[in-house]
Design a protein that fits this description.
Blueprint lengths: L3 E5 L4 E2 L2 E2 L1 H13 L4 E3 L12 H15 L6 E3 L5 H14 L3 E5 L8 H13 L5 E5 L1 H4 L5 H7 L5 E6 L4 H11 L4 E4 L5 H6 L4 E4 L6 H12 L3 H17 L7 H9 L16 H14 L3
Parallel strand pairs: 1-4, 1-10, 5-6, 6-7, 7-8, 8-9
Antiparallel strand pairs: 2-3
Length: about 290
């Protein structure tokens, strides 16, 4: 259903508040770069520190600014199933094209609990749902066999696979076939995952280089593996730099260095260390961004 490069867009803050003007400009930067879709209120969008009112406003602002030019996949997950239902219903009512739902973190449900969580949200909404599996953050891994069960639910249409595990990604693709779309949730594994059936990425680095990430996906989907490989390796140092510290601190700092937002993050995140910011600056300079 979805293919290409989708940006897990940062949420800019100014004086502690959502900076709507900067956000709208960031969205225009993404669309001008040829990005295939926008994902507001994901991990990179600092959803854990947004109030419900802010979360809904960010989603609504994104949808309003995009104006159906590209799909919007709104973050709506929670470790509280009732809360996930509320946020997913809001995404549907606001006009999002799909909802991105992280696996319930901290609670550590069983595989059956995961299945029932998604089934409950899907049964109370009509919006297409993209499941988000990121064990490194949630201490929980949604197994390929469970994803295959979820793929049988009509409005569960995709998976953001941020495991970084190509063996698991391959198994998921084998078991699910064409019932769902698998997108990488890990910039490093985007091209390898596409080689075994993935259809693109929900990306961090595309906040900074939307044209290159979109270009890599376009090249692969057109069958130009040489160009896709060239862009994969071109972006590699910048992708590494996005994880010099915990995401989204480096990417927000990079967007700041591009002059597009303040770079402020909310506690418990904190500003990037001077040493790491200097390393990031050097990578961006070598890339030709600053």
């Amino acid at each position: 259903m979805f293919k290409g490069a989708f940006t897990a867009i940062v949420t800019p803050f100014k004086n502690g508040q959502f900076d709507e003007a900067a956000y709208r400009e960031l969205i225009e930067f993404q669309i001008a770069g040829g990005i295939h879709g926008i994902v507001p209120c994901g991990t990179t969008g600092e959803s854990p520190t947004l109030s419900h009112a802010e979360h809904k406003r960010v989603v609504e602002t994104c949808i309003d600014q995009v104006k159906k030019r590209v799909p919007v996949i709104a973050g709506s997950g929670s470790n509280n199933t009732a809360e996930a239902v509320e946020l997913t219903q809001h995404a549907q009512q606001a006009g999002a094209d799909a909802a991105l739902m992280i696996t319930p973190y901290y609670n550590k449900p069983t595989q059956e609990g995961l299945f029932q969580h998604y089934k409950t949200v899907a049964s109370q909404t009509k919006i297409p749902i993209v499941v988000y599996n990121v064990p490194g953050r949630t201490s929980l891994n949604l197994l390929p066999e469970t994803m295959a069960r979820l793929a049988g639910i009509p409005n569960i249409v995709g998976l953001k696979d941020a495991t970084g595990d190509l063996k698991q990604g391959s198994k998921t693709l084998e078991l699910c076939g064409d019932k769902i779309t698998v997108l990488s949730g890990d910039d490093f594994t985007t091209l390898p995952l596409m080689c075994v059936g993935g259809m693109g990425v929900i990306s961090v680095v595309s906040n900074v280089v939307p044209a290159d990430m979109a270009g890599m996906c376009n090249a692969f989907l057109k069958g130009d593996l040489a160009q896709a490989k060239a862009l994969h390796y071109k972006m590699w140092p910048l992708t590494e730099a996005m994880f010099f510290e915990t995401n989204p601190v480096p990417v927000k700092t990079a967007v700041k260095l591009l002059g597009k937002c303040t770079g402020d993050v909310r506690q418990p995140l904190c500003p990037m260390s001077p040493a790491n910011e200097d390393k990031l600056r050097q990578v961006m300079h070598k890339y030709g961004l600053i």
